[in-house]
Amino acid sequence: MNKIERVEKEYKKAIKVNPTNSSLYNDYAVFLSKYRKDLESSLKYLNLALKLNPENKIFKSNLNKIIKQQEIKIQRRHNIFLLFIIGVMLWIGYEGYTNFLNLLTLFVLAQTVLNYPKTLYNDN
């Protein structure tokens, strides 16, 4: 067991022993985002910390940082997908199948897919 695994195990034990300690949830969330790069779990634990202590400015700040990290991650995926769609559109054009409706359909599909995941994180 490496050091990160040991620390994670200790956090889980501490939370189990003291489930109303909002600072533990916050600290574990920061640990998860920094060392595990697990933004979804980090959001879960920050939300638990904020349920216990909703006015804590540090918890709110950490939540905003994690949300920003997640938005950057999603934007990178969108950019990669957009490049793929542009590549497909160019390939269709270069192969002699240039059809305005096909290109328009691919573009609309790309925009729909790119905008869809943004709604997944707006339910808070």
CATH topology annotation: Serine Threonine Protein Phosphatase 5, Tetratricopeptide repeat
How many structural domains? 1
What is the annotated CATH architecture? Alpha Horseshoe
Main β-sheet, in a few words?
none
Beta-strand percent range = under 5%
- Number of helices in the DSSP assignment: 5
CATH superfamily, please?
Answer: Tetratricopeptide repeat domain
CATH class call: Mainly Alpha
Overall number of strands: 0
Q: What is the radius of gyration computed over CA atoms, rounded to a whole number of angstroms?
A: 21 Å
Q: How do the helices and strands follow one another from N- to C-terminus?
A: HHHHH
Compute the separation of the termini in Å.
Answer: 36 Å
pLDDT < 50 stretches: 119-124
Chain-averaged pLDDT: 83
Describe this structure in words.
With 124 residues, this protein is mainly α. It has one domain: Serine Threonine Protein Phosphatase 5, Tetratricopeptide repeat (Alpha Horseshoe). It contains 5 helices and no strands. Helix 1 runs antiparallel to helix 2. The chain is elongated, with a radius of gyration of 21 Å. The chain starts with a helix and ends in a 9-residue tail after the last helix. The C terminus is likely disordered.
In short:
The protein is mainly α.
SSE topology:
Layout: H1 3-17, H2 22-36, H3 39-52, H4 57-94, H5 100-115
Helix pairs in contact: 1-2, 2-3, 3-4, 4-5
What descriptive keywords fit this protein?
5 helices, 124 residues, mainly alpha, disordered C terminus, elongated, single chain, Serine Threonine Protein Phosphatase 5, Tetratricopeptide repeat
